[in-house]
Amino acid sequence: MPIDFSQIGWELLVPLMLLSILGLGLAASGLSRGRITLPGYLSYFWIFLLICVVTDFFSFAPAIWLMAFVSFRALREYFSLVDLRLEDRWGILGAYLSIPFMIYLIQIDWYGFFIISIPVYAFIIVPFLVTLGDSQGHGSLLSIGAIDFGLFFFVYCLGHIAYLAFFSTWLVLLLMLAVVGCNLAGAITARRGLIPGFVLSCLISLALTLGLRSWTLVPTGPAVFLGFLIPVLVHMGNYTVGVLERDLGISAADLEPGRGHVLDSLKSYLFTAPIVFHYLRWTMKFGEMIHRHGN
């Protein structure tokens, strides 16, 4: 059944408009054969916008599985870069299977199980699966650490974006716009040092958290706090993953799919998504809200 846009408030059309504009930009970049380049994080911003649009205009259920695709792609690239062994195949399989397991918990809104799904159950099962393939224990400790690390960041932390969309796509949009704004501020002030970039990031983030209150429904006090919290988390994620990229031999000047492009594009969200989600859940009392989307 076609969508009747006349019955939709203009505020719900904002994500759709952003999705269209950004989609055209990414298409132009792809067709230009390198003459037009866009930052990698914008491609995943496009996917997160798509999640918002599908949730608002269709249903949350299909939208959330787009997040599963993002986590799978990030985890696959990460596993291709770390020094894993053939003996780790069962642990790797367990890590991949953790993605639909966690996504399903979000879909049915089982928060209590979601919050411990990766840090408890997956972190216990993966070491067992790794040792099944390497009973002699030659290198198992490093493999367990590498797999669990990837699970935590690229499945569990990113999964909080999908869970935030369960309650409000405007909160997801606020988070995404603030992250993009912080990255743009960093690019603009790259030659001036860390402090100017951080100050500009705070100004952009604060303008967004306060300016979008009518749709996000975040109270003024928490909105101001978020305006300063998000830039801190973005810079922490960028710095941490930047160091890990150097350890993995990833060159910022030579990023490509399968060789650090996905990890570099998502690093700004890894610290931001879980902490912002839990802060908003506590502040706005998600458990007492009437969910916008059915299970």
SSE ordering? HHHHHHHHHHHH
β-strand amount: under 5%
Please report the total strand number as a whole number: 0
Compute the CA-based radius of gyration.
20 Å
Largest sheet: none
Mean pLDDT: 84
Share of helical residues: over 70%
The number of helical runs is 12
Structural class: mainly alpha
**Count of spatially separate domains:** 1
Shape descriptor reads: globular
In terms of per-residue confidence, which ranges show pLDDT below 50 for 5 or more consecutive residues? Answer: 1-8, 290-295
Distance between the termini: 21 Å
Summarize the structure.
The chain has helices spanning 10-31, 41-57, 60-81, 89-107, 111-133, 140-167, 169-188, 194-211, 213-216, 220-247, 261-270, 272-284. By secondary structure, it is mainly alpha-helical. The protein has one domain (5-288).
Name some characteristics of this structure:
disordered N terminus; 295 residues; mainly alpha; single chain
Describe this structure in words.
The protein is an all-alpha fold and 295 residues long. The protein has one domain (5-288). 76% of the residues lie in helices and 0% in strands. The protein is built from twelve helices and no strands. The chain has helices at residues 10-31, 41-57, 60-81, 89-107, 111-133, 140-167, 169-188, 194-211, 213-216, 220-247, 261-270, 272-284. Helix 5 (111-133) packs antiparallel against helix 6 (140-167). The protein is globular, with a radius of gyration of 20 Å. The model is unreliable at 1-8 and 290-295 (pLDDT under 50).
